[in-house]
Amino acid sequence: MEPEIRIEDYSYHLTDDNIAKYPLENRDASRILIFRDNLISESKFSNLIELLPDKSLLVFNNTRVVPARLIFRKETGAYIEVFCLEPFRPAEYNRSFSSASSCSWKAVVGNAKRWKSGEILFDSGSDKLLSEIDLRASIEARIDDEFIINFRWSLGFPFSQVMELCGKVPIPPYLRRESKDSDRERYQTLYAKERGSVAAPTAGLHFTQKLLQEIDVSTVERGEICLHVGAGTFIPVKSKLIRDHKMHSEPFSIEISLLKKILIKVERQEKIVAVGTTTIRTLESLYYLGIQCKEKGFPNDVTQWEPYNQLKDYSVGDAIQYLITWMENEKIDVLERKTEIIIVPGYSFKLADVLITNFHQPQSTLLLLISAFIGDKWREMYEYALKNDFRFLSYGDSSILFR
Fold it and tell me: Residue 59 region, left (φ>0) first, then alpha (ψ -120 to 50), else beta?
């Protein structure tokens, strides 16, 4: 049953001064607020290894942010921004990125009223190579506020390279500044691999190679999922009741080898630590995919309210085993699905015991997730962070929450 939750009950006073506009010089120099046993304390992120439970499994999202903002110019001189959201034709990320002359993407278009039809040319300025690439865009269709945009270009470069050469990093709109060259490196985790996100999984921005090496020589194990973060992560909740909010869908993938590690941790009652809200949404989706395998014979995508309408209470171990067995029977090594799971107060967590995450915007689905994880104590935690000058949002400080 969909929960009755008023979004106005999940607000706090966030000023522009609280928002970190730029990252710190050293990634792990950020502060980390610790919420454990209903007590609040703090440390430096560089001390994370001291905070992680012994023999825990630390799960990262290895998605890679793509420079998805492309600026075009009409013959009239009007600038048009095409913000690529996800591939449309071909629909698979890898195939789209390897396309050598044309492809189509779902996109949001800035200044769309100035572009009714016709082909527009990328604004290459005086750059000879960009001019020779000759990137052009045309509108195939419009669906509500989104467009299907056809791209074509010359020189035979893969579209991934065209994006790298022509695109801008889509830093969050609340930073209220243009992206800079430094954002290409800093708005990216050090372990980013799979291209596709238009927003960074920001909990991972604090990790350094030194810290990752410390983890690798400890009792803590590492694992990686991939969820491509969509622009929907920035969309504010506009409905008064959360049940009326439409959650965005995001594609994710997980290897069967990690599922087997997760099952071992569950059976041994060792802790699973999610690095970021995107990771925790992926991990929690796995439980419902396992149930689908048991009840339907195969896993489909996870819908927004599926956890709240699930009548049978399977054990976590059984659900993960159902999923593993299905993958083995189908000879699938990597599971690829989509999730629109929304985690709000009243949700019953299945896999994640600990969450590492930044500080989120008022009245956002991410703040509702924090409340679901630690209860009403989120208010006390956020009041502490504000009073003690923690830096908020994507480039801000971190927290580690023990459920």
Answer: beta
